[in-house]
Amino acid sequence: MGQVFQFKQFAVDQNNVPMRINTDGVLLGAQAEAESVNRILDIGTGTGVIALMLAQRFEDAEVWGVEIDDLAAKTARMNFDQSPFTNRMHLLHSDIFHWNNDLQFDLIVSNPPFYINSLHNSDERKKIAKHTDDTFFIGMLEFAAKHLTEQGSFQLIVPVELEDFLKTEAEKLGLVWDGQVNIRSFADSESFRCIIRFARQLHEQKTEEFIIYKGRGIYSDAYNHLLQPFFLAF
Length: 234
Fold this sequence. Notes:
With 234 residues, the chain is of the alpha/beta class. It is built from six helices and twelve strands. The two termini are 16 Å apart. The chain has helices at residues 23-31, 49-57, 70-81, 131-147, 163-172, 221-227, and strands spanning 4-6, 11-13, 39-43, 62-67, 89-93, 105-110, 148-159, 176-184, 191-199, 207-211, 213-215, 218-219.
């Protein structure tokens, strides 16, 4: 993708950002859902694309993006300021684990870095990340357990190998698994990502399947329908 990606209602400058717009991010931004959404948090906002997509979808919500990387935070702030949602957007340049606040969020999302210091060979890729990665994900779950509203939802997109680990750790913190979307490239391929949902209270608790392509280089009808409100080409 180019340095500036133009969506229907906003643009995202990707200069100086280590993690650019990708399929995982836009799928999360287009699918994340919760009840009575008044305040949203995007952990590790990067370019700010997920936060902006959620601002477009939830027209009355205040949207917060937290980003630890200095250049990414500056880029996200610029993208927020230049968007039509600027009066509802907030950017915090900080480590989420050191952000002390009393805010409660109806929806918390994240497209996190999956493998921080591990998973270098084919055998290890079938395992969850090592200790440092475990601590990172546990920290996000702890933050969500503290800052979710009673009806709130914490949703993140991760490799399917992390599903059982996240369910176990979330339960320890009083969060319940509240369903997920399993993502496959093709109808006959295995799931490689999932958008997994946790909450304080059970809602629908359903598992759905999402297929990106119906043929090589041809997006599925579901993908086109999901991204049609955002992408100029659709």
